[in-house]
Amino acid sequence: MLSAQRLDDNPCRPRHFKPPPCAPVVADPAVAELLEATRTRLLLAASLFALVFLVVIGRLVDVVEVAGAAPDPHVARARLVTPPPPPRADIVDRNGTLLATNLDSPALYVDSKEMIKSGENPDEATRLISTALPDLSPADIRGKLTSGRSFAYLKRSLTPRQEYAVNNLGIPGIQFSAAERRVYPLGDLAAHTVGYCNIDNVGEAGVERGLNPTIKDRGGPVTLALDARVQYVLKDELQHVMDQFSAKGAAGIIMNVNTGEIVAMASLPDFDPNHPPSTNPKTATPEDNDRIFNKVTSGEYELGSVFKIFNTAMALDSGVSTMTSTYDARNPIEIGRFTIEDYHGKHRFLSVPEIFMYSSNIGSARMAMAAGAERQRGFLDRLGLLSPVPIELDKVEVGRPHFPKEWRPVNVMTIAFGHGIAVTPLHMITATAAIINGGILHPPTMLKVPDGAKVPGVRVISTKTSDQMRKLFRYVVEFGTAKFAEAPGYVVGGKTGTAEKNLHGRYEETKLVSSFIGAFPMNDPKYVMLTLVDEPKGNKESHGYATAGWTVAPATSRIIERIAPLLGVAPQDEKSPQITQALQIESLAGKKIEDY
Amino acid sequence: MTRLGGVFWFILVIASGITNFLVKQTVQNLDDQLTSVRRQTVAEQKKIHELTADWTYLNQPELLTDLNNRYVHLSQMSPKQAQISLDSIPLRPALSTPLDTAPQVAAAAPPPPATTPVASPVEPAPPARAPIVPVSATVSARVAAAPAASEPPPVRATPPAHAASLDAVFAQVAGDR
């Protein structure tokens, strides 16, 4: 343009006149230089653009042809940072062993519209699916694939392995819907403690029901006081007793006397919480109900002689009796239509330790009469034996004690040896723990008590009475009705109880509930255990006996030998002077003690 | 002067553009990496969770008891075995070699325990130890005998009562519901 203006130097030239085209005449070398520079710049810019386009082309080729198959991380830049919290927290035992957890178990469904649209051959797809899920019938699969509906479940609750296998088939129209399922990896081991959930993940029994809100809201696992290993030993031995004596059922519970923690709890027969028996009243069989029923917390039993623990503690603590008091046990007591007799009568005056050791009903009844109804009732109430036990279970699973409304003399006498009052084994063990732990009643708990945590408790008897009761417990095992409960090294003590079942208002001589409360080591009790067997039948090894001394006492010995090392209770020498002195009853010292 | 200024600004614009691009690209890459690592972590956590459940299932005490009875034959610890406390284990008696004559060693080492562990109050009478020895003897004899006879370990004919994994449980549950 510059040169054109230069040429057009005649101002009088008509406006429409243009000189014919010709080579530019550049007169000025400076202008030539400028033109040259401009061209170079244009070239530079063009090559720059060309380079950029080349890069773009190269990248396009790279993306489409070379790296096209690789997943592109840019596609879904979703901020998936933490997994969603599970709908229910895990339940673990005191050592962290998993008792209940949620696992992904997606359901598999088919959108047959999409499948048909994709042109997938249904026969081929059926073949592939049935190789991945052999338990489905091919005809059924094919029917669903070709139904034309957009939703049909092929299978629910897939395992992770199955999910992987199906995913690998890559069949269009086959989809998963996310779902979680409650799984109990240890199966029936702690069925009654842990409980189970229904299909909507709502707790139906055990801790799952009792602590339902906590389990739902808690992020971390819920730690139970239960020890899976101890639980196994308890269950194993109870099952053994049940088989040995052809019993209808058995129950057992082990508690830490100083914290109230329930370390093990078993009720047989039990069930697998992964597929619990039916609870529908229409379809449930009596066996189903029996398996679901928790004998420890819901079963109310007239437990018989084990109640002498409380009778004796009451008499000693209130000062009505001392360790040297004696009571007339020469003749049976006739009261109303009842006759109170001794199973193994000694037919003489018995001292308090002897009444306990030989489990004298007559002596216990006389002791209770000396104390009186008011005191007896008050004492049992203080021990929590007249109201439901506070525990982390739903109230439908916590038994309510049965006891007479009116506390008449005959009731006082029978309650002294555990008849005419029905309580749950959980009541029994909670109260017994208080009797031997120094006199403090701790509420029982299913949850682990952290180390050093303060445990709530109320004093129910004096330390002195508790001390005396420990000695009595030890004497029962050393000389009395429970010699088979001895476990060398663990200084076991306890009390047997064999009660006749009250069916339709009559006590049946052949239908027994044999129970044993044992604790160890008696010089400083750590754990207390109750074992109970329902309707045992005597056999050859037990010489026909089905009493507690022959059934559950030996089982207690075996259980203690197996669990003490697990619970960190070191064996001691029972003959050592410290222990014999600590557990010596002065009034019996040096005397020859009759055999039971 | 204007020309120099233009060049300066031009370079500055280019440089800042490049820097901006590079930084943004790096951040984006890191972001992607982070997301993918997080996703992996979640997947791993899930896997660990599943494996924990599987492991617990395989560690059912009942199953372990069965396996023990079939292969290892470990027996229960008796109270006698647990009765030995640290105090009842004697220090090694002083050697009767020339070393013993060195005065420092003799002084440092406690005198050979005149009271053997048997005399400790916790320890039971000496015969109580006897059962321990035969037990270990039979165990070692059994272990030694097995390879010599080149027999496979005794396997009970009955198949294990448990399925190999949680699959069985799932299958049962799925059947129930």
List the helices and strands and how they pair.
The complex is a heterodimer of chains A (596) and B (177).
Chain A: H1 2-7, H2 29-66, E1 91-92, E2 98-104, E3 107-110, H3 112-118, H4 122-132, H5 138-145, E4 152-155, H6 160-169, E5 174-177, E6 180-183, H7 191-194, H8 206-210, H9 212-217, E7 222-223, H10 228-244, E8 249-256, E9 262-268, H11 286-292, H12 308-318, E10 326-328, E11 333-335, E12 338-340, E13 349-351, H13 352-357, H14 361-371, H15 373-382, H16 409-416, H17 425-436, E14 440-441, E15 458-459, H18 463-478, E16 493-503, E17 506-520, E18 527-534, H19 552-567, H20 577-582
Parallel strand pairs in A: 1-7
Antiparallel strand pairs in A: 1-2, 2-6, 3-4, 3-5, 8-9, 8-18, 10-13, 11-12, 14-15, 16-17, 17-18
Chain B: H1 2-58, H2 61-72, H3 79-82, H4 98-101, H5 103-108, H6 132-149, H7 167-176
Explained architecture:
The complex is a heterodimer of chains A (596) and B (177). With 596 residues, chain A is α+β, with helices and mostly antiparallel strands. Chain A is 36% helix and 15% strand. Chain A has 20 helices and 18 strands. Chain A has a 5-stranded antiparallel β-sheet with strand order 9-8-18-17-16, with helices on both faces. In chain A, strands 6-2-1-7 form a 4-stranded mixed β-sheet, with no helix packed on it. Chain A has a 3-stranded antiparallel β-sheet with strand order 4-3-5. The longest helix of chain A has 38 residues, at 29-66. Chain B has 177 residues and is mainly α. Chain B is built from 7 helices and no strands. The longest helix of chain B has 57 residues, at 2-58. Chain B is elongated, with a radius of gyration of 36 Å. The model of chain B is unreliable at 100-161 (pLDDT under 50). At the A-B interface, strand 2, helix 6, helix 10 and helix 19 of A face helix 1, helix 2, helix 3 and helix 7 of B.
